[in-house]
Amino acid sequence: MLYNCFELTVADSLILNSIVKRSLKTTENILHLRNNGSPFEQNLFKDLRINRSAVERRTATIGTRRSVKKEWQAAWLIKAISCIDLTTLAGDDTSTNVQRLCAKARHPVRKDILEALGMRDENLTTGAVCVYHNLIPEAKKALEGTSIPIAAVSTGFPAGQVSTEQKIKQIELSVAAGATEIDIVISRSKVLGSNWKSLYDEVKRYREACGEAHMKTILATGELSTLTNVAKASHVCMMAGADFIKTSTGMESVNATLPVSLVMIRAIRDYFETTGFKVGFKPAGGIRKAKQAIEWLILIKEELGNEWMTPELFRFGASGLLGDIERQLEHFVTGRYSASYRHPMG
Question: Does the active-site annotation cover 282?
Answer without folding.
Answer: yes
